[in-house]
Amino acid sequence: MASSRNNNDLLFDDGLVSSTEASDLSDRYIDYLRSNKGLGSRTLLAYRVDVLQCLEWCGVNDLSDLNSVSTSVLRQWMYWLNKNHARSSLARKVVAVRGFFAWATHVGLISANPAQILNTPKIVNELPTVLDEAQAEKLLDCAEDRSEDYAVDKSPATEHQENTPLKSQIKMRIKSKIKSQTETKQEYVIALRNAAILELLYATGMRVGELTSINVQDMDFENHTVKVTGKGNKQRVVPFGVPAAKACKKWLDCGRSAL
């Protein structure tokens, strides 16, 4: 019986696995990881992309179905990846694909796991480049200065006010910074937000991804602590100091509702 599939939609040349089926398999694998491994949404998304890329590469190289994928083939895939990917990315992709084939073996999609003996590329653990104390202070001071600059009273001067040199300087400073009242408010709000972000990052050492997942109720201003959800949905309580508390309160009180 002739196949009803459109050859343009096939993932593998022999037509045994379509791109839709590959996507469905990847989704099933990701659902399994989400339910059993507690991985974060970013990691799950990356793993899904990694698995699909591997399957697409196998399709380009004339493999008919999952059982046609051998350890040798996967090592060729790793060699191809090594040409244009950082070792950290390659290591993650190997972990994702090795896990996928282990899962596929477990649920009976394939008879043997070709990725079982794949070695994860070694990554040289290098210390990250960080700001020194002076640079950090300069960055924080800059954010604070910007929020204070935009907080200057922007009310227009009336005609009967004395045009003193000081008042002229103030008006010229305002005119040079402000194009419109709306634009000024937006810049002020953004400056407050940026100052709060930098102060909290500096005070806690949390990851940017962790910062973006913080809810208002996670902040405890009385005890100066914040509840942080890290990798694997593991939670921890991290202290922060007075400068971070002031910046965050100012953002919540004066800026957050305006965005």
Automatic annotation (TrEMBL):
It holds the Pfam family Phage_integrase. Keywords: Cell cycle, Cell division, Chromosome partition, Cytoplasm, DNA integration, DNA recombination, DNA-binding. GO terms for biological process: cell division; chromosome segregation; DNA integration; DNA recombination. The keyword Cell division applies. Residues 20-105 form the Core-binding (CB) domain. GO terms for molecular function: DNA binding. Residues 126-259 form the Tyr recombinase domain. It is found in: Cytoplasm. SUPFAM superfamilies: DNA breaking-rejoining enzymes. GO terms for cellular component: cytoplasm. The keyword Cell cycle applies. This is Recombinase XerC. It comes from Gardnerella vaginalis.
